[in-house]
Amino acid sequence: MSSPVPRRVSATGSVSALRRYPVKSMLGEDLQAVTLTASGLEGDRMVAVIDQKTGDVATAKHPQLWRGLLALAAQWNGGAPRFTFPDGTSVAVGDTAGAELLTRLLHRDVRLATVRPEGAQVARPAPEDVIEHGDDADVPYEKLEIGQGTPGTNFVDFAPVHLITSATLAHVGTEMIRYRPNLVLDIPGSEAFAENDWAGREISIGPVRLRVTIPTPRCAVPTLAHGALPRRAEAVRTLLAENRVAIPGFGVRPCLGAYAQVLEGGTVAVGDRAALLRSPARDQRVASSTSSSRC
């Protein structure tokens, strides 16, 4: 019986940025270090605004209703999350005044939730329609269940971690915060959209081990105004032209970055070494070849 072949490193680099978003669809915060668990980054997407009329999770994916959320900034605040309005008013998530102020700002009756309801959904128009008709246009949308790729009850769109390479960001020439990643990885020598081919591969960062699941489908959010950043249709238009990817369960979508599961948790920091491992299938081919050559 042959021994298993050790997993091999195919590329190395480092973590160049860490970000979390305590309240879904609000602006996030830069981090120097953070703990990851099976649910993702500590404090990430732990709170969401809920539409009282529909029960849907409010997200700027449906900009006609919810693009105003991107004008607010959220802070984890050591487990006591707060969010700040453009005029500087800061409110604790647990403060009843928060929902009242949000209702006035968004012109919808809303509440705040800290646990994702079973089957929670968001409304998502096609980004092409939003680009063509405008942020406030009444365009068709689909309903999508969120959190299907995570064991946690936070409000991630799919999987616990969203990562992007610096090579991809440099190629699209658009501000990183528009794509709302958790990790930005600087992998010297990597090409733009390399993340498309990482599904099933593992990434080690210190004690943390991630497994990439699928490329990240993009909605209209990157095209919208983010705080002081203006609307930028090219943030997704470039992907529509250059990087449409067929994703099982999602269809063909414009993509940028990748989703990942957390296999082993721990603390990561900006500057930590990141190693991209060869795919299990490649390792198995190597093992089979080695075994055959010894027969």
Topology:
Layout: E1 9-20, E2 29-31, E3 33-37, E4 40-41, E5 48-51, H1 63-66, E6 73-75, E7 82-84, E8 90-92, H2 96-106, E9 110-113, E10 121-124, H3 127-133, E11 142-145, E12 161-165, H4 166-172, E13 183-186, E14 202-205, E15 208-217, H5 234-242, E16 244-247, E17 251-264, E18 266-269, E19 273-277, H6 280-293
Parallel strand pairs: 12-13
Antiparallel strand pairs: 1-2, 1-13, 1-19, 3-4, 3-18, 5-9, 6-7, 7-8, 10-11, 12-17, 14-15, 14-19, 15-17, 16-17
Any overview of this molecule?
The structure is a single chain. By secondary structure, the protein is α+β, with helices and mostly antiparallel strands. The protein has one domain (9-293): M1 Pyruvate Kinase, Domain 3, CATH 2.40.33.20. The protein has 6 helices and 19 strands. It has helices spanning 63-66, 96-106, 127-133, 166-172, 234-242, 280-293; strands spanning 9-20, 29-31, 33-37, 40-41, 48-51, 73-75, 82-84, 90-92, 110-113, 121-124, 142-145, 161-165, 183-186, 202-205, 208-217, 244-247, 251-264, 266-269, 273-277. The strands form 5 sheets. A 7-stranded mixed β-barrel has the order 1-13-12-17-15-14-19. The chain has a 3-stranded antiparallel beta sheet with strand order 4-3-18, with no helix packed on it. The chain has a 3-stranded antiparallel beta sheet with strand order 6-7-8, with no helix packed on it. The longest helix is centred in the last third of the chain and has 14 residues, at 280-293. The radius of gyration is 20 Å and the shape is globular. The model is unreliable at 1-6 and 282-295 (pLDDT under 50).
